[in-house]
Amino acid sequence: MTAAYDPPATRGIEAPRAPRRKLGGRRSNMEMYSWLFMRLSGIVLVVLVLGHLLIMNVLDGGVHRINWGFVAGRWASPFWQVWDLLMLWLAELHGANGLRTVINDYARKDGTRFWLLMLLAASVLLTVGLGTLVIFTFDPTIS
Length: 143
Description:
The chain has a single domain (26-137), classed as Fumarate reductase/succinate dehydrogenase, transmembrane subunit (3 helical TM bundles of succinate and fumarate reductases, Up-down Bundle). By secondary structure, the chain is mainly alpha-helical. It is built from four helices and no strands. The model has no long low-confidence stretch (mean pLDDT 85). Helix 1 crosses helix 3 (78-106) and helix 3 runs antiparallel to helix 4. The longest helix is centred in the first third of the chain and has 34 residues, at 25-58. Its main location: membrane. It is found in: Membrane.
C-alpha cells in the first residue's frame, strides 16, 4: 500500500489568522465593525492629512512661516482645533486597531496577548489624552 499524499503546505505551519477557538457572534461582529472602521477612517484620514500637509507645507510660504504665532492663530479657531483633534483621534485609533490585529494574529500565548493589548490600550489613552489636552488648553499668551 502507498501512503496518502500530504501536501507540504498543510503540514506544520498554520495560517496567521487560523482561529484558535470558535468565535461567538458578538466577537465576529466586533471584527466586522473594526474592519469597517479601518476603511472609513482611512478615507477620512487621507483628506485630513493631505489638507494638513497642503496648508502647513505648501501654501503661503510653506514650512518657513510655521512658528509659535502661526500655531496660536490656527488654534484660536474652533475649526482648526476640531480638524487637528479629528486627525489625532482617527490616526491613533486607526493605528491602534491595526496593531491590535497584528497582536491577535501573532501573539501565541494568551498572557502575552493580554499584556501587549493592555500596553497598547495604555499608550493609546495616554497619547489621545495628552494630545486632546494640548489642543484645548493651548494658551498663546504664555511668554
